[in-house]
Design brief:
single chain; Rossmann fold; 2 domains; 6-stranded parallel beta sheet
Length: about 280
């Protein structure tokens, strides 16, 4: 029951109507029986929203599009990893002192590490947004040879320069997938309702490849379905969503995240018919 002692955490972004973050976090609070609640706020003015976090004593906030970069300007401290990535997806309020973190990086690495060892591998990363930046930093820290591809080559070049990647280019370079160990789609291509789309031609997929699609709705995107048919190892996007949320949960509460309860709540929705909607990289 929500009362005067309830600790409030939130999601800040625009849009947020169909985010699954509330579902994941509140399932965790319920599993542990702690007096917390997590609510989404659709926010256009990030400066005023962060003032509200400070003024209202909101314990923590998940930050999603389009505020992950701009939020940095209005907080007091930034964790070194988030500073390196250039974006925050988490804010912690310690008695009015606001610190920014980025859990997307470790969330993606944990999802990948479940199925393969990263060191020495060659990865093709498609995309240049906040999620791609977080993943790129994590891959480079794990001695992965990285190729950054994007529809706009200038954006690929910028991200490659940021992380000292060996190679970059436009999507005309997609055939490099044939010599890669890992393929990561960090774009929204394949997201519901355009779930019949894939950014990678099926013939480029091969059975030595691990394919990670950060799109989580549908749970199995066209890219992952075709990768499975071609004998690839596949990594579901919902795993990154879950693991980054679990790390946020622990920053918010100080408790170990009850992963089974949080994952169960998430997969029940993704595998059912109640959820049809929006790509959220928080």
């Amino acid at each position: 029951m929500i009362d005067a002692n309830t600790v409030i955490c939130c999601l800040i972004g625009d849009p947020v109507e169909h985010s699954l973050s509330s579902l994941i976090h509140n399932a965790g609070y319920q599993a542990l029986g702690i007096n917390y609640v997590y609510v989404p706020f659709r926010v256009k003015d990030i400066k005023r929203a962060i003032e509200g976090i400070r003024g209202l004593g909101i314990r923590g906030a998940s930050i999603t599009i389009p505020h992950k970069t701009s939020a940095i300007e209005y907080i007091d401290k930034v964790d070194p990893l988030a500073k390196e990535i250039g974006a925050v997806n988490t804010i912690i309020n310690d008695d009015g002192v606001l610190t920014g973190y980025n859990t997307d990086c470790e969330g993606a690495l944990k999802a990948l590490a479940e199925v393969l060892t990263l060191g020495g591998k060659r990865a093709v990363l498609i995309g240049s947004g906040g999620g791609a930046s977080a993943i790129a930093v994590g891959l480079k820290k794990n001695s992965v040879e990285l190729v950054v591809l994007n529809r706009t080559e200038d954006k690929a070049r910028k991200l490659a320069k940021q992380v000292n990647a060996e190679d970059f280019g436009s999507l005309e370079r997609l055939p490099v997938v044939s010599s890669a160990d890992i393929l990561i789609n960090a774009t929204s291509v394949g997201m519901w309702p355009r779930a019949n789309e894939s950014i990678i031609p099926k013939h480029l997929l091969h059975n030595r490849l691990a394919v990670f699609d950060i799109v989580y709705n549908p749970k199995e995107t066209r890219l992952l379905a075709e990768a499975r048919e071609r004998g690839c190892v596949i990594i579901y996007g919902y795993k990154m969503l879950l693991y980054q949320a679990a790390m946020q949960f622990e920053l918010f509460t100080g408790y170990q995240a009850p992963l089974p309860a949080m994952e169960s709540a998430l997969t029940q929705v993704l595998e059912g018919e109640r959820y049809a909607t929006h790509f959220d990289r928080r």
